[in-house]
Amino acid sequence: MPEVDATVAPGRGRVGPFTLSVSSEMVFLDLPVAERVRRLTALDVQVEIWDWTRHDIDALDRLRDEGAVYSSMTGYVSGGLVDPDAAEDLLATAARSVDVAKRLGIPRLNLHGTGLDPHGLPVVPVDIVTGPMWVAAAQTLERVARLGEQHDVTFVLENLNTAVDHPGVPFARADDCLRLVQAVNSPHLRLMLDFYHAQIGEGNLIELCRRALPWIGEIQVADVPGRCEPGTGEIAYPMVATALQDMGYTGTIGLEGFASGDPDEAVRSFRKAFTI
Question: How far apart are CA 69 and CA 12, in angstroms?
């Protein structure tokens, strides 16, 4: 493994107009999480983590001295957007998550339409999202945004797909998440636009991105089918990358996908797809 040059950490993952990040939860799965972070840092990408309660935060913090930069993490432990008790739980665990994010220097905290179990299924499945549910979700997210403003972090609401990975999740479509983010209208609540989920649920990715551009906090990618690195499926990611550059997107793009084979090669393929 190449040595890590910690002096480049402030620009970690920068490739042209984009900053690249990779989920440590989905690559180098035969290694402990700390070693995954080291490997990704050596490949000059930032690192995403999920549920911080499953990690040794002290160890992750020490890795920052080795040059690791964390891009995003799950921004709650339990709870949901609609039911009053679940909303209170989400807010309480979001506040705890903010403390961890600030310690690790993480700028974006990820949310979903409801709490997910270890298999990605909704803790409380929803068949039909009613009007009052939309109102309650927007009100909860307004409180989340105020929490983000208080602590100078950004919460990002991620779209999911219900056809393959997350059946029964409310507010799953990118269009649903975008509408909620627009309704709250705060710089501390943005859209985590996941192209893998959007391709399965909606398609038309470039036009979707143009419409959502002012509200995007980060973009996540993986190919379809299979949820592996770009080049393994049907999405023409080099064309998507060019379109993103043309429309002026200069934010983070995160690989939230598995490696189809060698993880180092998967990260390199991801980098190649977004090198313009």
Answer: 7
